[in-house]
Amino acid sequence: MDHYTPKNFMLTESVGFRIVKARNLVVAELDTALKDLDITSQQMGILLSLKQRVATTPFELSKLLGIDTGLMTRMLDKLETKGLLERSRDANDRRVVNLNLTAQGLETAAQIPEIAPHVLNARLHKFTKAEFAELNRLLRKFTGD
């Protein structure tokens, strides 16, 4: 079923526009809240992914977080410069770069759960539990997860 046609398509009423607008609101609010940790919301995703071991290489992080490899490299450079992560070559395959959080990176990552939920809860405060569950379900359906 086609939900859009050339006749009814209006940018500001499209699902894509609303998703991007919602993303930008959350990113801006998270970036403000994370300022004291000296990280951005995108860097937060990297730190938490490494802490939770859902990704351990730049390629895995790029795929998981939807960030192109060039931008990922620059973000990892910044985090490494800040002393939050270390890169090392894989012992079995020197082409693979493994990423590990430093002690400072682990400490920073441990503080994120004290900050991020407040930002998200403030954005979601008008949602009932059922609406929140439905939003999550619909977003998973939309993204194919």
Automatic annotation (TrEMBL):
Q: Name one GO molecular function term.
A: DNA binding
- Ranges for domain HTH marR-type: 1-144
Question: Would the keyword Cytoplasm turn up in this protein's UniProt record?
Answer: no
Sorted alphabetically, which InterPro entries does this protein's record hold?
Answer: HTH_MarR-typ (IPR000835), WH-like_DNA-bd_sf (IPR036388), WH_DNA-bd_sf (IPR036390)
Annotated TM spans: none
Say yes or no: keyword Electron transport present.
no
Question: Which UniProt key words apply to this protein?
Answer: DNA-binding, Transcription, Transcription regulation
Pfam families attached here?
A: MarR (PF01047)
Q: Which PROSITE patterns match?
A: HTH_MARR_2
Q: This protein is called what?
A: DNA-binding MarR family transcriptional regulator
Can you name the source organism?
Paraburkholderia unamae
